[in-house]
Each structure stands twice: as C-alpha cells, then as structure tokens.
Amino acid sequence: INHIVHNGGLYKRPFNEDFEETPMLVAVLTYVGYGVLTLFGYLRDFMRQWKIEKCQNATEREEQKDFVPLYQDFENFYNRNLYMRIRDSWNRPICSVPGAKVDMMERVSHDYNWTFTYTGRVIKDIINMGSYNYLGFAQKAGTCQEAAAKVLSQYGAGVCSTRQEMGNLDKHEELEKLVARFLGVESAMAYGMGFATNSMNIPALVGKGCLILSDELNHASLVLGARLSGATIRIFKHNNMQSLEKLLKDAIVHGQPRTRRPWKKILILVEGIYSMEGSIVRLPEVIALKKKYKSYLYLDEAHSIGALGPTGRGVVEYFGLSPEDVDVMMGTFTKSFGAAGGYIGGKKELIDYLRTYSHSAVYATSLSPPVVEQIITSMKCIMGEDGTTVGKARVQQLAENTRYFRRRLKEMGFIIYGNEDSPVVPLMLYMPAKIGAFGREMLKRNIGVVVVGFPATPIIESRARFCLSAAHTKEMLDTALKEINEVGDLLQLKYSRHRLVPLLDRPFDETTYEETED
Amino acid sequence: MDIKSMKNYLYWLYCQFELITCSYLMEPWEKLLFYTFNVTMLVMVLYTAYIFVPVHISTAFQFFLHLLGNQHENTVSVVK
C-alpha cells in the first residue's frame, strides 16, 4: 500500500526520486580495481623518474626540479596514470550538427592515448545520447536556421562591444522582453555565456556579511560565483530539506559568526535539474522554507528550462507554482534552445540593478545577433506563437521519451539515479575499467554516450549519462536500448537488486534516502 | 555445441576478470607482469595447501577421535 500524503499537500503530483545504494560487492571490487591501478601508477611513475621509460606528460624543467613540486598531488597522479588510459572516450571531434544523429571523426592512438592521429574516415550517423539537445533545436535546416541566416546577413556575426557601451542591439531588447514573457516575470536580462551568468552575477547580488546556503552538488559556476562574492557559504545535503531548515534556523538564531549580528541577506542557491544525478529540486518545500525564514532564492534552471513542465516553462511550472515566489530565476539558452548564453529573470528593480552592477554587463561582449535570433525563434516555437503546434509536440515528445527510456532501463536491471521525469539519465558503472569499456563498446555499435568519472563524480560512483531529446524517435531509442542491453550483459552492468516503490515521505533518516521494497 | 558455448562462457569470465582488476586498461607488458604475479601467488597457495592440508586434517581428526574415545572409556570404567 503506498502512502497518500505528499508533504502536507505542497506537492500536486507524486515526487518519484530514487538513488539506489551501491551493492557492497561492487564497491569492494571497485576499490580493488582502483588499488591495482594505483600500484601500477606508482610503478610507472618510478620508471619515468629513473628514465627507464620515456616521460610523455608535463614535468618541470631541469632548472626547476628543486622548486616546490607542481605535479605531485593526487589530481595529477590520477591524470597521468588513470585518465590517460581511458582518454579516448572524451574530446571526440564531431563534424556535423549535434542533433539526434551526429558524424564523428575517427581517430586512433598508437601510444596508448598519449597522442591521437586521424585515420581520415568519418563515422556517420551515430545516435547521439550525449548532447544537451532536449527539444531538438540543434538543426541545420528549418525555421530557426533560416531566421538566423537572415539576421546574419543583416547584422553580421560580431558585436564588438559590451552591453553598456555600443553592444546593446534592438535584438537584445526584443529577446529580453520575450524571455520575461516566457518565464512570467517582470523583466529579464541576457548574457553571452551561461557559466559567466552565474559566476559574474552572484557577486553583484551578495557580498560580505551575507550568507549563501548552497546545495552539495551545485555546478562549478554557482560555486565560483559564491566564492567570488566573499559571502559566507554553508552547504546543505543534496535536496535535503531538513538539512536546509536546520541551517536556516541556525543562521537566524546565531547570526554572523563573531559579532552575532543578523545576516544582511540569506541566499539559497539551488538548481532545477542536477545534471550529474538527474534529480529535481524540491521546489515547493524550498519556497515554503524561504517564506518562513525570510530569505531569497536563486534558481538555476540550466537543464530544466524547456525540458520540464507541460508547456516547457521549467521546474516552476512543473510543480504548479508561481514565478513570483522565486526571487532570481536564472537559466541558459545552451540546452533546450540550441543557442548559447544565459539569462536572469526577476523583478524590474533587480534587473535594472544588474544592468548597472553586473560584471558581465560591464565587461563581457554581448550575444551575437544570429544566436539571439535562434533563441527568439525557438522560444516563439515553444510558446506556440509562430502559429504551429511544433513546440508543444516537442515538449510532449520529450516527456514521453523520458518516461519510456527510464522505464525500460529500470526493467532491464540497471541502476539509474534521479527523478522519473528528468531527461538526464545517469546509469551507474562504478568500476574504472568499465568506464573506458562502456564508451568504446557503445561507439563500436554506433551510439555516442558521455561517460563520467572522478573528479566530476565521487571516485567510486562513475556513471554514463544519457541526455534524451525530443528529436529521438522511438526507433532510435529502441536501437539504443537494445545496444545498451547487449553491452550491459557483456560488461555485467545490471547491478540493481530491488523492485522500486515511489518515494515515501517519512521523518528524517540520516543514513540513506533509498526507498525500495526488498 | 557444448564445447563452443563452454569456451564462450570461459572467455566471458576472463573478460569480467579483466574488467574488475582493470587489466583491460593495461599495456601488454603490464598485463604480463600482473598475471605472472597473480599466477605465482596462486601456485604458491595451492602448493602450500597440497603439502599441509592433508596433514592438518588428519591431525585434527585424530585429536577429536582421541578426545571422544578417552571420554567413552572413562565413563565405562566408572560405571564398572
């Protein structure tokens, strides 16, 4: 019997999130694998030092050998002994538009991934399960491309100035009004780079004497922005509302560390969809907490804008909440809109302040006109203002693809992290040799996947991350699932031992948030 | 073809061993070194087992038999 109450009625639909625990045997074997590789790493380092083997990685010059060593830490050890062995799964050069299918240049390495040479052959029509192409707007033909080509012939490609000087085009004004209308906020501002939107605007919003409460697994741009601002940063456990409430209570009761004065501002940094876990933020609870403790909320919708919600307006629409409750809505145009750049939306006073005080507005070049036109056309398509139902069909197709793909993978027996509705699907691999093997085997079968290991994930939790797209047809997904099944049997990746039940709302348990039936 | 499926299964098991111990990622000379070390250790363990295990088992067996046999005799003599 499944429970009824969804957190006191805050959630209008069930919230199904699952992070299955690592099986003990798999964890032990992963450590064994890393142990063997570490021993061989020490052996190879020894041989390189004593000149038995040629040293191909970066080292200090002869004159600098007595200085403080540059390459002795764990990151560099990992880089030259473990990462180099599986390096051919990353930085693969593609030579076509990264749509549902992509062409890739073939390369071989004769010295175990230290150098690559191109064979000259192009591998065609690889099913692309790695691009952030959620609504399929990465196309080289269609209305978006024609509009962008027309604007390119009208405005050219370069802007050659910052927003505050001579780089404020009428296209930018049009885009910002459209973004504000799309999100349901008073005003918005667009920037040239998504990473820079976070890292350059958080310092403009908070400073010393403010408190930032940031999720454990926040993106590097948010972490960098928080550190640059000079505010005090406290971390709460991933998506854990009890941990966040405890931090808020402590902040209100105790104030600043030495002087006990109240904090000038408390800012909560969360993301809509976390791209490494595939989890969705518990937005109703965060907003309830924010209102109770009178703090501000900064929501980074990089992966969720366009991908969640019945009309693609993001995680706020997905939960049926009002955009007025979120103080700063940030997002990027890179993922669902097939362009580049980021935006921040909110109240008019906030955006007017950012226009003057944001580092990005003062120093960074503004968006390029064809890119702006791509965003405008794709956004109008999603909203349905271009007169067709293509946008709505794409949003629905993505939701269907997500549910189908996740269900099939779970039925096959893989461990999949994250929420049922998130188009980011991490499949757990755990062992280091399987990271390289999975990438290579999938490429042999003409499917391109992104595999992730340390340092982007904890060292034993390496994974393969699939990004679904509205451009994937059911046949492509079926082909991909068949090949994943084959590779899963070949490499023994089907670790899952449980049947799943939806997430139960129960009192805070410090050990695990695994909700399964044994 | 039972032999063929047996050979495929054994090859698959070898692949799993390679993946778990990460010898899939090693260069050929590293693999040689690793396998030589493993095989040497395994042979030494088996040899030690071959020499010592029968002696240990027969000693233990005799010990327990002696213990039980002595007890039985003692009780018999008291009753008498």
From TrEMBL, chain A:
Its cofactor is pyridoxal 5'-phosphate. Keywords: Acyltransferase, Endoplasmic reticulum, Lipid metabolism, Membrane, Pyridoxal phosphate, Sphingolipid metabolism, Transferase, Transmembrane, Transmembrane helix. It is a single-pass membrane protein. GO terms for molecular function: pyridoxal phosphate binding; serine C-palmitoyltransferase activity. SUPFAM superfamilies: PLP-dependent transferases. PROSITE patterns: AA_TRANSFER_CLASS_2. InterPro entries: Aminotrans_II_pyridoxalP_BS, Aminotransferase_I/II_large, AON_synthase_class-II, PyrdxlP-dep_Trfase, PyrdxlP-dep_Trfase_major, PyrdxlP-dep_Trfase_small. Its EC number is 2.3.1.50. It holds the Pfam family Aminotran_1_2. Its main location: endoplasmic reticulum. Pathway: Sphingolipid metabolism; Lipid metabolism; sphingolipid metabolism. The keyword Transmembrane applies. It is found in: Endoplasmic reticulum membrane. The chain crosses the membrane at residues 24-43. Residues 124-484 form the Aminotransferase class I/classII large domain. GO terms for cellular component: endoplasmic reticulum membrane; serine palmitoyltransferase complex. GO terms for biological process: ceramide biosynthetic process; sphingosine biosynthetic process. Belongs to the class-II pyridoxal-phosphate-dependent aminotransferase family. This is serine C-palmitoyltransferase.
TrEMBL record, chain B:
One of its GO terms (molecular function) is serine C-palmitoyltransferase activity. The keyword Acetylation does not apply. GO terms for cellular component: endoplasmic reticulum membrane; serine palmitoyltransferase complex. The chain crosses the membrane at residues 32-53. Pathway: Lipid metabolism; sphingolipid metabolism; Sphingolipid metabolism. GO terms for biological process: ceramide biosynthetic process; endoplasmic reticulum organization. Its main location: endoplasmic reticulum. It is found in: Endoplasmic reticulum membrane. The keyword Nucleotide-binding does not apply. Keywords: Endoplasmic reticulum, Lipid metabolism, Membrane, Sphingolipid metabolism, Transferase, Transmembrane, Transmembrane helix. It is a multi-pass membrane protein. Belongs to the SPTSS family. SPTSSB subfamily. Component of the serine palmitoyltransferase (SPT) complex, which is composed of SPTLC1, SPTLC2 or SPTLC3 and SPTSSA or SPTSSB. The heterodimer consisting of SPTLC1 and SPTLC2/SPTLC3 forms the catalytic core of the enzyme, while SPTSSA or SPTSSB subunits determine substrate specificity. SPT also interacts with ORMDL proteins, especially ORMDL3, which negatively regulate SPT activity in the presence of ceramides. PANTHER family: SERINE PALMITOYLTRANSFERASE SMALL SUBUNIT B. Component of the serine palmitoyltransferase multisubunit enzyme (SPT) that catalyzes the initial and rate-limiting step in sphingolipid biosynthesis by condensing L-serine and activated acyl-CoA (most commonly palmitoyl-CoA) to form long-chain bases. The SPT complex is composed of SPTLC1, SPTLC2 or SPTLC3 and SPTSSA or SPTSSB. Within this complex, the heterodimer consisting of SPTLC1 and SPTLC2/SPTLC3 forms the catalytic core. Within the SPT complex, SPTSSB stimulates the catalytic activity and plays a role in substrate specificity. This is Serine palmitoyltransferase small subunit B. It comes from Glareola pratincola. The lineage of its organism: Eukaryota, Metazoa, Chordata, Craniata, Vertebrata.
